[in-house]
Amino acid sequence: MDIVRDTDRNRFELRHDGAAIGTLEYSYDGDATVLQRIEVDREYSGQGLAARFTESVLTQLRDAQEAVIPSCPYVRGYILKHPQWRDLVPPDVELSA
């Protein structure tokens, strides 16, 4: 599995054998990257791919020193369950389930 950032389409792609099997769409709010919606193809559900995909995207954003606004409920919940990612979220952004 590979994670690719498609800046032309404002999304990250989870790829398997070169084909996108998942996407995480984003936009921008000032300097922050707004993570809007994650989706993994149904045939790959139940394998923990959404969690691994989310973690990989957050790692890329941390490496790029980008702040994150998790508007996607799944990503927000992931950050709440894994507080090591909380530092990516600006202090004025409320995180709640």
Labels describing this entry:
97 residues, alpha+beta, five-stranded mixed sheet, 2 helices, globular
Task: Describe this protein's structure.
By secondary structure, the chain is α+β, with helices and mostly antiparallel strands. It is 25% helix and 36% strand. It contains two helices and five strands, in the order E-E-E-E-H-E-H. The chain has helices at residues 49-63, 73-81, and strands spanning 2-6, 11-16, 19-29, 32-40, 67-70. Strands 1-2-3-4-5 form a five-stranded mixed sheet. A hairpin with a 2-residue loop joins strand 2 (11-16) and strand 3 (19-29). It is globular. The N and C termini lie far apart (29 Å).
Layout of SSEs?
Elements: E1 2-6, E2 11-16, E3 19-29, E4 32-40, H1 49-63, E5 67-70, H2 73-81
Parallel strand pairs: 4-5
Antiparallel strand pairs: 1-2, 2-3, 3-4
| Counted beta strands | 5
Give the biggest sheet: 5 strands, mixed
Structural class: alpha+beta
Secondary-structure element series: EEEEHEH
Please, what is the average pLDDT? 95
Beta fraction of the residues? 35-45%
* Large-scale geometry: globular
Strand order in the sheet with the most strands: 1-2-3-4-5
User: How many H/I helical runs?
Assistant: 2
N- to C-terminal separation? Answer: 29 Å
Rounded to an integer in angstroms, the radius of gyration calculated over CA atoms is 13 Å
What is the helical fraction, as a range of percent? 10-25%
Low-confidence stretches: none
Question: What is this entry, summarized?
Answer:
The chain has 97 residues and is an alpha+beta fold. It is 25% helix and 36% strand.
